[in-house]
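input
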Amino acid sequence: MRIPYDPNEPNGREKAIKRYYRGNILFYGSIGSICYYIWALFSFLNKKDYVNFLLSLGGMIVFATIDYFVFVSKKEKFSKIGTAIVFFPCFIMGTIEISGIVSIIVAIGQMCHKGTGVALLLGSFVAVVINTSVIVLLYKMIMSDKPLFKSITKETKQTLRKKNDSISYEKTAPLMNMSDMENPVIYCHMCGTKLPVDSDFCSSCGTKLYKQGD
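output
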């Protein structure tokens, strides 16, 4: 088994192995929780098994939350608030989509064997169509140049304009306002927001503020 790692990184091999096993555990755990949820939903719709349904739903929520904090929230392009705004609604809609598809299958089975399930079939079909439309719309809005929420990306309009002008920005220390020495402030070097002098991150765009000597 070959696990790629950066030989120049301190303890790079050990860190790569940890990331590999952690990723596999979370991946198979997440897949297992989804499979358990599907089985529990079949059981719930046919036998009213509330216990397994609630346990499986809780398991999916736990693994989704762990996946978010371990992988998704660390994406450099997005702020933590932005990723949460995108990730958890997508998780909810994905769960609704799975539930709707399973409900349609169960309803068809009930219609074939018991002559019932018409209401379940129609309700599930409508729910899947609406939910799919919302997922497609949300995906288009996220992938477009105009994010659904301003806090989704750390790249403000000013930053994008600077990038379009092909200006290269290095780790620049934030500008300090020396006009008021009693209450000194600094300005974010990316978006220009006025901040307290002891700030580490910009409260507006989320950019890390590199102090003198960093």
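quick obs: Strands lie at 175-177, 185-187, 194-196.
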